[in-house]
Structures are given as structure tokens and as C-alpha cells.
Design brief:
binds calcium ion; globular; two-stranded antiparallel ribbon; alpha+beta; single chain
Length: 111
């Protein structure tokens, strides 16, 4: 039924989902991907270095064979408050950076 509201149980939260558009689906993926990894060890709301490595090497094909030193550098650059964990805000900055790189590729391809 068009416009119908379904209740989805995600991490125990009751989320109302009304006919998700592609952009909304992308946002949902960005959020759920974070939580898929953040819940693996330590704090459930942040990514440890190990969780960050698992996320980027599994979810980003360009990072599949990233060197340990590159992961260290990425971790250092994302961890703005230097608590050795990547919180959702720090992860959002990472996604924004990726988004801008994708836009640059898009503009380059459409010249
Ligand atoms: Ca941090």
C-alpha cells in the first residue's frame, strides 16, 4: 500500500519507515553500516581501530588491501578528539570526505 507505515525493529529502536527513497536508503545504509561494526567490541557506539579496519576493508572495495600504516593514518586523521575511538560524528566526516571524492569523480566523468 502506497505511503503505508511499517515499523522496523533496528537495534531495539522502533523506527518508522515510510516508503524510503534511494537517498533515504543510502542514509539508512550509512547509519546501519556504522552500527554493524561498532557493536563488535568495546563501546557499542564507537568504532575501535579494529572495527574501523573491518568496516573499511569489507565495505569499501578501494580499501580492500589497505596497509596497516594507512589504517593507522586514517584512524589518526578521523579521531578528532584523540580518544582512540571513532564516534558517529567522526565517521560522518569520513563519509562526507568520501562523498566529495565521489562527486569529484562524477564531475570528471561528465566533463
Ligand atoms: Ca574519537
Amino acid at each position: 500500500m502506497m505511503g503505508s507505515v511499517q515499523l522496523k525493529n533496528f537495534l531495539g529502536w522502533r523506527v518508522h519507515v515510510v516508503m524510503e527513497t534511494p537517498l533515504e536508503k543510502a542514509l539508512t545504509t550509512m547509519v546501519t553500516t556504522f552500527h554493524k561494526y561498532s557493536g563488535r567490541e568495546g563501546s557499542k557506539l564507537t568504532l575501535s581501530r579494529k572495527e574501523l579496519k573491518e568496516l573499511i576493508t569489507t565495505e569499501l572495495s578501494l580499501a580492500e588491501k589497505m596497509k596497516e600504516s594507512s589504517i593507522d593514518n586514517l584512524m589518526k586523521s578521523l579521531d578528532k578528539n584523540s580518544d582512540q575511538e571513532i564516534d558517529f560524528k567522526e565517521y560522518s566526516v569520513f563519509l562526507t570526505t568520501l562523498c566529495m571524492a565521489y562527486n569529484d569523480f562524477f564531475l570528471e566523468d561528465n566533463k
